[in-house]
Design a protein that fits this description.
mainly alpha, two-stranded antiparallel sheet, 7 helices, 2 strands, globular
Length: about 170
């Protein structure tokens, strides 16, 4: 009986008949996975540096990425993070108590709550600033055409990931 691949690295890639292309595809898949894991580690390290739980840092980072003026409810956060509304409420309680977020009543529906980053939330942006600055510098080393390819790959990869999330939510 044949055993399957022992690791992700062994199973990444495809047998297209072009050994060089297969190897490059495998390297892309492995690099993408390693980048995802590095982002998780970055979030955990940032959380530790700010003396908060990684989930709190994750949600605070998400709130920082929402365009200014866009109302974000606890339900929105729960949908994006796949956490329960109860868990999100606990995170928001902690973030609010530490000055990272504020809760406001929705002016259009007083039953709803809007969560907004507070002044203290700038700490997470400051923690990520070196990564952002270095990423911009890295981007400047690529041609516009190369960057457009990277954007396309990342966006299509995000769509694939979102389809997988939707499928897993149905289980």
């Amino acid at each position: 009986m044949s055993q399957g691949p022992r690791s992700y690295h062994e199973s990444a890639g495809k047998n297209t008949g072009d050994a060089e292309r297969d190897e490059v595809l495998k390297q892309v898949m492995v690099a993408g996975r390693e980048l995802g894991l590095a982002f998780l580690s970055l979030n955990a390290a940032t959380a530790r540096a700010l003396s908060m739980h990684p989930t709190d840092a994750w949600i605070l980072s998400y709130l920082q990425s929402v365009p200014a003026g866009t109302p974000t409810s606890p339900g929105d956060i729960a949908r994006v993070t796949d956490l329960t509304t109860g868990a999100v409420t606990g995170v928001i309680d902690r973030l609010e108590a530490n000055g990272y977020v504020t809760r406001e009543r929705d002016p259009h529906d007083r039953r709803k709550v809007i969560v907004r980053p507070a002044e203290g939330s700038k700490k997470i942006a400051e923690a990520f600033r070196p990564t952002i600055d270095d990423s911009i510098e890295l981007g400047l080393s690529y041609t516009t055409e190369e960057l457009l390819t990277v954007i396309r790959y990342l966006r299509e990869g995000k769509e694939i990931t979102e389809r997988t999330i939707a499928r897993l939510r149905e289980l």
